[in-house]
Amino acid sequence: MATGVSILPAQQLAALNDAYRKAVARKRLKTMMAGAVFFGALVVAGIGAEVNLRTLFTYFGNFVSYFDRILTLDSGQRVWTDVGEWFWGWQKWLKLLAETILISYVGTLIGAVFAFALNFFTAQNTSPGPWLRFIVRRLLEFARTVPGIVFALVFVIAFGLGPMAGVLAIAVHSTGALGKLFSEIVENADMKPVEGIRSTGASWLSCMRFAVLPQVSAGYASYALLRFEINVREASVMGFVGAGGIGQELVVAIRKFYYSDVSAILVTIIVTVFVIDITTGWLRAKLFGKEARA
Amino acid sequence: MSQLPKPDPQALRAKYPDVFERPASARLATPLMLLAAFAVLAFGLFDLGFSPSRLVSGLRELGWITLMMIPPDPGSSLPTYLSALGETLSIALLGTTLAACMALPVSLLAARNIIPSAIFRFPVRRFLDSIRGVDTLIWALVWINVVGLGPFAGVLAIAVSDFGAFGKLFSEAIEAADKKQVEGIRASGGSTLHEIRFGLLPQVLPVIAGQVLYYIESNTRSATIIGIVGAGGIGLQLAEQIRVLEWQKVSFLILMILIAVAVIDWISTKLRFAIIGQRAVA
Amino acid sequence: MLVVEGLTCRFGTKAAVDNASFSVQPGSFVGVIGRSGAGKSTLLRMVNRLADPTEGRILFEGVDVTALRGKALRQWRARSAMIFQQFNLVGRLDVLTNVLMGRLAEIPSWRSLTQLWPEQDRALAMSALEQFDMAQFAAQRADQLSGGQQQRVAIARALVQEPDIILADEPIASLDPRNTKIVMDALLRINKHFGITVLCNLHSLDLARSYCDRLIGMAAGRVVFDGQPSMLTDHIARELYDLEANDVIGGAPMPAPDAATAPALGTAAAA
Ligand SMILES: Nc1ncnc2c1ncn2[C@@H]1O[C@H](COP(=O)(O)OP(=O)(O)OP(=O)(O)O)[C@@H](O)[C@H]1O
Ligand SMILES: [Mg+2]
Question: For residues C118 and C121, what is the distance between their CA atoms, to the nearest angstrom?
């Protein structure tokens, strides 16, 4: 085997190795310190969260057997051997599922309309005044940061039990989330077409309609669709606090240990989320394709 | 005045039929779609029990609640709330870390440049997607059944639901990694393990660290709510105070959450910039 | 001796390398020239087994390299060190670790994966760096170096593989004239001093003429010229680079390194 390297004299080598080790040691020290801080935080957190690994190990079997149990019918057979028995409540569940999707749809649409109305106030290039901008921004931030289910808890008391509270909770949270995204789109819009249209003598409304809207509408629709998908998941748990949808049925099934019902409802939810995920993904791809062509 | 010759509408029409006689389907598509969207909205409002009177009385009630929330006041429960907040932050940190540790090996199996065969990759992806399809709150309920009430169930709930999200994100980061660097390792005689260890991980780890930091912030928010079903943290207190209509305490708790989320957001942005900044030097 | 027999590589229906045959004497400095897309990179990648041939064989000292697998394959890759146009270093690893990558095929996996490099391997890597004036950068990250410096690190990595043959795929294509000279001189020194065979893809004919003692010209995947640099007249060179425009090459490829190639090119161009 040919060798193309002549090994350096020991002294020179030692000097070079030394310099290398020193330089690396400095970097390594930094990394180790960061690692130590992180590890320390984890330990503190572990104490704070009452993590008990013994509990986990003793009960981890429960987790596995839990899935074993929810996949077993009362008769002791696997659920898929008797789909009719597994999905015995399919009429009720489908109705609740439809309600869940409707909650998400109505909530998203209301949220999108409000976000649409508000985003022009918060975008830097279209906002009428800095004070208004500041206030609307803080409001949107509040609506975005407080989790939807917390709104639901309050709304259930204000508006009474039922899907209405869920819809409003989702609408408020979506307004916050979409308002921020929408205003970012507006801020990124090209203002030259606005000038172009204004130069023909058009009004402000025409400028927005023909210069801004064509640029932003695909982005708006795309984000709204994405939000819809997230909201379906969120709406599936609104029932936990009495705000409508399939969550009510699920929480009862889990708490009362109706094992096979749990898996049936979960499967229904997962399949729905899949279908909506794929459909909205497809629609979004189409929207952006359209925009690219325009 | 216009210098253009007077156009002959008939001739123009004949010449550009596409412009003047767009098919009805093209002209009506957008309005029809909007109409359908709002028709479904109207049906939904009706079906979900919206009515003007309910809305008005509810809003009035909400106004009262808001008034009663002012000023925010923890009463004598401040220490309890602070420790609950600490618990929430702990849940977020531990859950996210645990999820990242579990997701990294699995994400390798879902990345195209490591497992080229779609037959093996597809089930892994679907598996991750199904985990993502289930809300954190549902996982929390399941874990409560397994390890009992308390924050530990919350940690596990966040870990499992993030595991799905991380698996997908990490595998995308791995697929975006520079192929040339990996090829350099292979060309000098490295095995697949070497390619992953020396070619991929150095590229992918900073990206992953950024994503994990980003999630710690959003998980702080998730961790505040899992208490609602009994999995520890500040959500437990929040749900409790709402139930007993102690609105001043409620607003105080919400304020605490907002501040905590803002602080975590600030820290994670700083750290993320530190990591990305290192990369920008390159 | 490296022998290539009827080597073909197809991507779909397109043959990137088409029935190439030639042999390379130990210790020679062979340049591979041809237009972009002629198949030069694919040829070198097949020799290193980064790409798998569709047909044909590669023999090295009588061993069929195309049949190697597993550890033997990795050892062959180490013996036929590859140098890339884009250097293909791991940007976030430090320079010394990058050079040590050249030892992966020799070191037991548990040592390399935990970065417990044996002392003599470290010495080898550091010496190789010093040979190219790069030892002072040993602790720096590879992506913080200039292109020329990175390529020198890549050559150091190639050398610690203790290769019998170096495959350089346009090693100077992204470098400025000064670094071009440094890198080409380094390759020449390795070749003349240590007798390591070099197979080098080049775009510049001037460089090819001044550094190589033999040139292989490729067009549309075929070997269409094989001979001394002095045999590469301007006329032939022009044909080599324009020929592909018509996409027709008459006759069989010319493996024999003799003057017969020249008229064949002429007829092909006329056709
Ligand atoms: N992985 C691949 N998949 C499909 N086609 C490929 C692949 N690699 C190379 N090719 C094709 O094979 C042909 C030869 O490519 P190759 O990279 O060997 O050319 P080259 O002579 O090195 O060109 P250049 O001088 O531009 O580097 C090209 O037409 C290229 O498109
Ligand atoms: Mg090439």
Answer: 5
